[in-house]
Amino acid sequence: MICPNCKSEMPDDATFCTKCWNAMPRPVEPVKRENMERVIEKCVSMLSLPSVLKIDTHLGLDKTQTNAVEMLKGKVKETEGCFGEGAGGFKAHIILGIMAFNSKHYDDAVEHFNIAIKLEPERKEGYHNKGVTLYCLGKYDEAIECFDKSIKIDPMHAIGWYSKAMALIYSNRLHEGIKCYEKAVKIDPELKKTKVPV
């Protein structure tokens, strides 16, 4: 094994270089190309995706793995460009939160919506999306708090009223839920077509 730092030759089982004291990279078990996406999905959460950019590809990765990491880095940068404001902006965290939600990574989704709320607390989208995610987790009281904040920002947000109605109904506050549903339908009569679990 060759030390990547000083280029000295070391035994294959060395954990550090005896000349420069640099830690020696451990060989990584190669991943078959057809399993790569599954491994990435399992090991890389939505929140850790930006850290892909920090992976040091010379540390024990084979050519296939190095290429896969480089491809991921390209996709992350491409996605950042689509957000317009970069990977750390409000819109980016809303989109990443929705992607995490759609993948049923609810904890990651909540984290992205929390970041979006911190960045722009005057916008309803962060609160509403966080509320929907908490609702899916069965955290109805927390969801109702988020919907209240969303509605306070935009009292004419029919979906906000409807979402609050569903959370109230599922938390056995039927009377309050029906009132919120009626407000939602008054704002957007199309919501009458949706079923209310009463």
What would your notes on this structure say?
With 198 residues, this protein is mostly helical. The protein has a domain at 90-193: Serine Threonine Protein Phosphatase 5, Tetratricopeptide repeat (Alpha Horseshoe), CATH 1.25.40.10. 57% of the residues lie in helices and 0% in strands. The protein is built from eight helices and no strands. The longest helix is centred in the middle third of the chain and has 21 residues, at 63-83. The model is unreliable at 28-37 and 39-50 (pLDDT under 50).
Descriptive keywords:
8 helices, Serine Threonine Protein Phosphatase 5, Tetratricopeptide repeat, 198 residues, single chain
How do the strands and helices of this protein lay out in sequence?
Layout: H1 33-43, H2 63-83, H3 90-102, H4 106-119, H5 124-136, H6 140-153, H7 158-170, H8 174-187
Helix pairs in contact: 3-4, 3-5, 4-5, 5-6, 6-7, 7-8
**According to CATH, what is the class of the domain at 90-193?**
Mainly Alpha
Task: Indicate the CATH architecture of the domain at 90-193.
Answer: Alpha Horseshoe
CATH-defined fold name of the domain at 90-193: Serine Threonine Protein Phosphatase 5, Tetratricopeptide repeat
Mean pLDDT comes to 76
CATH-level-4 superfamily name of the domain at 90-193: Tetratricopeptide repeat domain
Number of helices: 8
Write the H/E string, N to C.
Answer: HHHHHHHH
Outline? elongated
Percentage beta strand: under 5%
